[in-house]
Amino acid sequence: MPLTGRKILLGISGSIAAYKAAPLVRLLVKTGAEVRVILTPAAAAFVTPLTLATLSKNPVLQGFLKDERAGEWHNHVELGLWADALVVAPASANTLAHLAQGLCDTLLDAVYLSARCPVFVAPAMDLDMYQHPATQANLARLRSYGTTVWESPTGELASGLSGPGRMLEPEDIVERIMNYEL
């Protein structure tokens, strides 16, 4: 089912897989979704706000403050209420740990804690990071909260290793969102 009129918040965290966020945004918009992007500070090293803003047709949110001098801020509660779905793709080990533990030092963390909509995460990290007991415990904790964790497919990773840790392809993410009853 198309996502026409659906409001999708896309959280992008610091992973080499962030390069897949641009085609993901494009595909979501193509299905009719309104997309707003939240970029963590680490993600900005991998993909530019200009690219994502151009594709989403919305400003990219990067921090709590819009304009520090004017006291304007991005209201995380409002964003959490606005969204029909929060998708975190890629979800780095650091971001997964923040979400699982309730840490809140980025806008994405605060929106996650405020979101009343379904939340989906697409993990993306190297093999050993993905398989580490701490990461697996964080994924289990997120599932226990009702967060949908998409399994990481096996394949070649940026490090040259092969195994789980890859982010789902953008087409697969869009298909999974479309198959979910939002």
How does this model look, in words?
InterPro entries: Flavin_trans-like, Flavoprotein. Pfam families: Flavoprotein. It comes from Hymenobacter actinosclerus. Residues 7-178 form the Flavoprotein domain. One of its GO terms (molecular function) is ligase activity. Helix 1 (21-30) runs parallel beside helix 2, helix 3 crosses helix 5 (107-114) and helix 4 (93-101) packs across helix 7. By secondary structure, this protein is of the alpha/beta class. The model has no long low-confidence stretch (mean pLDDT 92). A hairpin with a 4-residue loop joins strand 3 (65-67) and strand 4. It has a 5-stranded parallel beta sheet with strand order 2-1-5-6-7, with helices on both faces. A two-stranded antiparallel sheet has the order 3-4. Strands 8-9 form a two-stranded antiparallel ribbon. The chain contains 8 helices and 9 strands. It has a single domain, classed as Flavin prenyltransferase-like (Rossmann fold), CATH 3.40.50.1950. It has helices at 21-30, 49-56, 76-82, 93-101, 107-114, 127-131, 133-144, 170-179; strands at 7-12, 34-39, 65-67, 72-73, 85-91, 119-123, 148-149, 154-156, 162-164.
Keywords:
ligase activity; 8 helices; 38% helix; Rossmann fold; 9 strands; 182 residues; alpha/beta; five-stranded parallel beta sheet; two-stranded antiparallel ribbon; phosphopantothenoylcysteine decarboxylase activity
